[in-house]
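Shapes recur. One chain:

:::
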Amino acid sequence: MIDDTWIDCPVRTVSARVANPDNWARWWPGLELMVTCDRGERGIIWTAGGPYRGSVEIWLEPVSGGVTLHHFLRLDPASGGRMSPRSAARTTRKFAWHAKRVFWALKDELEALDR
């Protein structure tokens, strides 16, 4: 799953939230995350464990006085089994909508603080 959200704030403001481990469990409930690449103001890449295994990435791209938060989620069942196409689509939609709500809320919160 790939998605992005534009936030009307300086990249350093957004990257500070992304770097705060207290946010990660709320953003990706049920996933156990371990940082594999901390790119500072450019984002973070994690490996994911728990019911799914894979990687989670946030890439921050400064754009037009704000930042585009790109979110990448690559997950497979931890059991190593394969999901049916219908189950995979349902799981992807669930994670996609959750991420969209999370990052829209972050956008609203940070833009309100920055005004």
The longest strand covers residues 52-63.
